[in-house]
What we know:
Number of domains: 1
Organism: Wickerhamomyces pijperi (Yeast)
Mean pLDDT: 79
Distance between the termini: 35 Å
Subcellular location: Mitochondrion inner membrane
Structural class: mainly alpha
Function: Has a dual role in the assembly of mitochondrial ATPase.
Largest sheet: 3 strands, mixed
Low-confidence stretches: 1-32, 187-194
Number of helices: 8
Strand content: 5-15%
Helix content: 40-55%
Shape: globular
Enzyme class: hydrolase
Amino acid sequence: MTQSTPGATGLDIPAAETIAVPSEPKDLNSIKGFEWWRRTMSYKTGFISDPQELKQYENDLQYKKNQDDCKQCYEYRDWALNYSPTVIFMLQQIKKLNVAVSDKNIICDFCNDWKGGGFHPELGVLLCQNRIIDKWHLEDTLAHELVHYYDEAKFKVDWLNLKHHACSEIRASSLSGECRVMNQIKRAGLARFGRGHQDCVKRRATLSVAANPVCKSKEEAEKVVNEVWDSCFNDTRPFEQIYR
């Protein structure tokens, strides 16, 4: 995996060298059965005193968790590809632009940032297996990234142009469903629900643009989002209207 395209989605695909994935245990049997149970109990009760054994245990534990997360992520992905109306529709619309997207372009991996996923114009979509909460979260995340995929195919976005980036972020947050009513209540509770769909979209778009290395500050991100807001928020292509 090459260095991520800066600001491509606000949820950039990390460069391979920045992803801290634990190494595979030399013997997978060492994390199964009685031996795994013994080491787990020793760790929990403080009886592992050898620093090397402790380090290896923690490495194996993280590796096992990553494998489990990876399997679950791919199960959620396959569910979305086969049953999510939004994801299926977006894939059909991207295909109409002569860009083929398959499961080979949508991968799960470990991410060391608090991001649900990312889009790379040459590599495709990354879903952050250690950040995905459930299949509904993955559905929204994948839909978000597929809006970026669509924008790239239709408009040839310059991701280092903050206005281009802001426009795609506004569209992705608005059209993916991640700012729908129930999602806002889940994340923020009823006390903050009054912000509404548009405020949610603005907030998320601003955070993503602010993460673009070309952007100098959050204030600049807010300014750019506001400058392109009307035209980009009202552009619901390829949908007829915003899904809420």
